[in-house]
Amino acid sequence: MAFADLTPSASVTLERRGVPVLGEREARLLEAVERVHSLKEAAREAGISYRTAWGTIQVLEQALGRPMVQLYRALRQRLEAELARARD
Hints:
By secondary structure, this protein is mainly α. It has four helices and two strands. It has helices at about 25-35, 40-45, 50-65, 70-85, and strands at about 15, 20. The protein has a two-stranded antiparallel ribbon. α1 (about 25-35) crosses α2 and α2 (about 40-45) crosses α3 (about 50-65). The radius of gyration is 19 Å and the shape is elongated.
């Protein structure tokens, strides 16, 4: 008996201490962030709100104990402030 229209499919979720940490939604978001370099645009591509995307990143960072994305705007503002202080 052949089922030519059936294809195998699997879903993987990474857990830490029994708590789901990285699933399909998180992976989709991180891939989009890497591709477009913007959390706002990545959220749109992943089909979730910016607030949900930001919360997802925070949960990932907390669970893994390390940053998952670099916030360039905050870094740039901090560096500009330090440069302004150095000039004075």
